[in-house]
Amino acid sequence: NYTGPDGEKITLLAWHQDQVTALGPDAKIVAGDDFCRHAILSYGDTVYTMQPHPEFGARAIEHLIASHQEKVLPERLAEADQNRVLPVDADKTAVRFAEFFKRNAKEKVA
After folding, report:
1. Are 15 and 5 in contact (CB under 8 A)?
2. Apex CA 75: angle with CA 74 and CA 77, to 5°?
3. pTM above 0.85, yes or no
4. Which of 96, 102, 59 has the alpha carbon at shortest distance from 81?
5. Cα–Cα distance between 102 and 45 in angstroms, integer?
6. From CA 73, how far away is CA 51, in angstroms rounded?
């Protein structure tokens, strides 16, 4: 679960070893958690980035677990296996992306 500044929870699956650890100029934290504080960011009114994968479901994570047995710590694999069955907010995430770009496109035109 990632939490936005407004307190809204977003459930998405993630699979990464690299992450943003320092904010760049104009970066705004949209959502994060204790492990990945900068999980979703916006930069000004033109860039919206995301570390988690809204396109990933349980099957994608199953395949990643199976193919990374030698590369990932067993406790992290167990955590991924446990979390892969969570319902993800892919639709909510798509709406957030669309709203961001629609809002900022209108401001550019106006």
Report:
1. no
2. 65
3. no
4. 59
5. 10
6. 20
Q: What's 32's DSSP letter?
A: B
Numbers of helices and strands, H then E, in the chain: 3, 5
Structure tokens at 103: 């809002």
DSSP symbol at 88: P
Which two three-digit tokens encode residue 68?
């990374």
Question: Can you give the pLDDT of all 110 residues of the chain as single tens digits?
Answer: 888 878 888 888 888 778 888 998 899 999 999 888 999 999 988 899 999 988 888 889 899 999 998 988 899 899 889 988 888 898 988 888 898 888 877 666 55
Q: Side-chain half-sphere of 84: how many Cα atoms within 13 Å?
A: 19
